[in-house]
Amino acid sequence: MSHKQIICLGLESSCDDTAAAIVRRNADGSADILSNIIHTQTDVHAPFGGVVPELAARAHIEYMDQMVAEALKTAQLTYNDLNLVAATSGPGLLGGVIVGLMSGKAISLAHDLPFIAVNHLEGHALTAGLSHGIEPPYLLLLISGGHTQILQVNKVGQYELLGTTIDDAIGEAFDKTAKLLGLGYPGGPFVEQYAKQGNPKRFNLPRPMKGRKNCDFSFSGLKTAVLLAAKNIQPITQQDKYDLCAAFQAAATDVLADRLKRAMLLFRENLNVTIDSPQKLIIAGGVAANQAIAKKLTALGQQHNFELIVPPANLCTDNGAMIAWAGITQYLNGNTNNLTAPPRARWPLYE
Ligand code: KG4
Ligand code: ZN
After folding, report:
1. Residue 185 near ligand 1, beta carbon < 6 Å
2. Distance CA 307, CA 67 (A)
3. What is the pLDDT of the chain when averaged over all its residues?
4. Which of 317, 322, 323 has the most ligand 1 atoms within 8 A of CB, as the residue to mutate?
5. Residue of 119, 174, 295 to mutate, ligand 1, most atoms within 8 A of C-beta
6. Per-residue model confidence (pLDDT) at position 336
7. Taking the CB of residue 269, how many other CB atoms lie within 10 A of it?
8. Is the pLDDT of residue 291 over 90?
9. Is the Cα torsion angle 258, 264, 267, 269 positive or negative in sign?
């Protein structure tokens, strides 16, 4: 491991957050987040109940410069203090990715700094190193509006996909349930609040993929089941909404736990370690904020000797700090200049 201090500017614009952050990797390997600035486009997309790519790209253009200026100001640094620039170059909505990627390349060229094109998923995958100093191997559950994946992180740059959704992402299912019931956007936090006052057993919703041998997910059937259950009880009362949210959340949580249980067994098999060897499970992505999910997965972890680690909420959702940290990590691994890297709508981590 190198003993260099590195100060990196990280940019993120792959979905609906325009973010810039400055992270310092100290000579002893520890990290400090000197600034972590974000503009979330909730108000732009709320009327549509989901992210509108064209509107997202326009908002990124409008806000990226401000985010960078604020990140430098908060860190009390100038461009001259930076050693590295990193930006998300995929996967994500192409219009937005282009904004952050080209901004990063321009700053790198203007100030003669090395540039790293970061895979957004790698940003999430390595966040536990930034927040908790944790190094691979570990199991990663990534649950957000765009992704539902279980990854085995063997070491930096070596990721194995254990399971993924075959249709909708889990966050999307939360958002669609909220939209159906007219609760607001983004829907996850509303569904969680409503579920607290509901009876999860009133509606008998399916648990798609439960018991399957692989670790994959499916959420579109669950979404349709909620729709049908709601249709059958029109006009819908406030208590109906509470009960539907509780039933949906219970089903989604159940599925997560079942798929993750399989992944824990597979992870041990792959690493050739028994249940006596303590392991780590990291949860990242916006849905990781859900307390009912965290509670269930903590209990599951205890049964299987996996310690559950959830980075702080502002590092779980999309942010610039995780991109800066992934950039620093890549740089120390010998990746020095990606000025020709293209924006990529699709970019699996495990190819
Ligand atoms: O990671 P994120 O901020 O953005 C990306 O999708 O990349 O995740 C946003 C997703 C949304 O679908 C939102 O509804 C969901 O995370 N979410 C939640 C909660 N808070 C946010 N889902 C369930 N429970 C929550 N408390
Ligand atoms: Zn993300």
Report:
1. no
2. 35
3. 96
4. 317
5. 174
6. 85
7. 9
8. yes
9. negative
Ligand 1, atom nearest to 186 Cα: 14
Whether the per-residue pLDDT at 49 is higher than 90: the answer is no
Helices and strands of the chain, counted as H and E runs = 11, 10
Nearest residue CA, atom 10 of ligand 1? 145
Residue 290: pLDDT band with limits 50, 70, 90? very high
pLDDT of residue 4: 87
Long-range contacts made by residues 156-161, C-beta under 8 angstroms, separation at least 24? 156/126, 156/329, 156/330, 156/333, 157/330, 157/333, 159/122, 159/125, 159/349, 159/350, 160/270, 160/350, 161/348, 161/349, 161/350
Q: In the chain, what percentage of residues exceed pLDDT 90? A: 94
Residue 351 has pLDDT above 80, yes or no: no
> Domains of the chain, with CATH numbers?
6-133+315-332 (3.30.420.40), 138-313 (3.30.420.40)
Q: Does residue 189 have its Cβ closer than 6 Å to ligand 1?
A: yes
For residue 331, how far is its CA from the centre of ligand 1 (angstroms)?
Answer: 30
